[in-house]
Amino acid sequence: VAGPGSPAAPKYEGVHHIYANPAAMSGYLSGTFPDGAVIVYDQWSAKALPKDAIAAGERKFIDVMVRDSRRFAATGGWGYTEFAWPDRTRVTAIEQNPQGCDGCHQGAPGQDRVFSSWRE
Ligand code: HEC
Q1: How many Cα atoms sit within 13 Å of 50 on the Cβ side?
Q2: Do residues 54 and 47 make contact, with C-beta atoms less than 8 angstroms apart?
Q3: pLDDT digits over 50-75, tens only?
Q4: Atom from ligand 1 closest to the CA of residue 18
Q5: Distance 42 CA to ligand 1 centre (A)
Q6: Which residues, at least 6 apart from 19, have a Cβ–Cβ distance to it below 8 Å?
Q7: 51: CA distance to ligand 1 center in Å?
Q8: What per-residue string of b and e applies to 58-72 under the rule 16 or more CB within 10 Å gives b?
Q9: Could you tell me the distance, in angstroms and rounded to a whole number, from the CA of residue 50 to the centre of ligand 1?
């Protein structure tokens, strides 16, 4: 969860769901992601509920990373894309911007450009 005071707000404010296919799961466990790994990042707004509870509100967008070391050699083997919500259109301006997806993911500490990590 990113709160309104996060440096990542307003875009990333809210609830983050991250999904990994089996190849991506092996990357989370080993630290090296094989070709064929797909990670989906599902961003929701946060909705305040009574008694100080917070729940996921509306979906804001979906980001996807696909590992193909040949096709995406220029960006560390990762292809990135974003789908706006609710119209599901692809936001190509972001994926083509070197300061965009990969520019930030290059800074992910120690895990093959992936920020999140597996928790038991
Ligand atoms: C300003 C930095 C920044 C930018 C720009 C950015 N991301 Fe991320 N991304 C993050 C961070 C930080 C996380 C981890 C969030 C969490 O754990 O809740 C993340 C998580 C992800 C994940 C889940 C895997 C992981 O690395 O943890 C995917 C997939 C993803 N981003 C795709 C994208 C795509 C596609 C774009 C471009 C449209 C993009 N990101 C742009 C910082 C960024």
Answers
A1: 0
A2: yes
A3: 999 999 999 999 999 999 999 999 89
A4: 23
A5: 10
A6: 39, 40, 42
A7: 31
A8: ebbbbbbbbbeeeeb
A9: 30
